[in-house]
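Action item from last week, closing it out:
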Amino acid sequence: MSDEQRISEEEQLEPTGAEGAGEFDEFESANDRFKRSFTSWFWGSIVAATAFHFVFMAFFPTMEAEDVAFVQDEMEALELPPEVEIPPPPEQIQRPATPVVTDAQIDEDVTIEPTTFEDNLPDDLPPPPSDEAVDLSDEPTFTPFTEAPEVTNRQDVGRALEREYPSLLRDAGIGGTVMMHFFITEDGTVDNFLVAESSGHSGLDDAAERVAETFEFSPAYNRDERVPVWIQIPITFTTN
């Protein structure tokens, strides 16, 4: 292409006069228009913000501090418990002394002087026992024994209870227990008997004494020897 043709084409592309300027405005971009209007938007925003803050501060309610004071209750002193006295620690136990071998010499011929009761009589001696024989059957007395006597005729004793029970007391439903003491000889014979504890009715006490006459026992033993003993047996009268 020649230079003359290139120049003629550039002249055709470039706008000329007023006509050219109008054609240029038709091709203005949105970014250019925004840049050209930035100044008016900026100052308009500043004025609007100032007016908003002025109105907000003018009509904002007055703030007052709330009273947060408080009243403290008077403290009362409580009675303190008495002080406990702590006892002092116990004294340390003294350790036993270490045995030491001594050099003392003991005479091997040391003897103890003989002592007799005649030379050392006690001051208050009880009187010697009397030679009079004591009858064990007179009153209850303790006699040591290893085997107690046993009743050998329980059926006879049962029949005697029914026979000797006073009819008036039986019909009235009155019963009771009479505690009896029996003295039993070496051969098991009842040699004596006594009312140890009453039933509260004389009729029952008398009936118990009559029943006691029918008792028979085996002898009591102290190891291998027969011994006379006192024993205690209850005699009960009941309607059941």
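Closing note: The longest helix spans residues 30-59.
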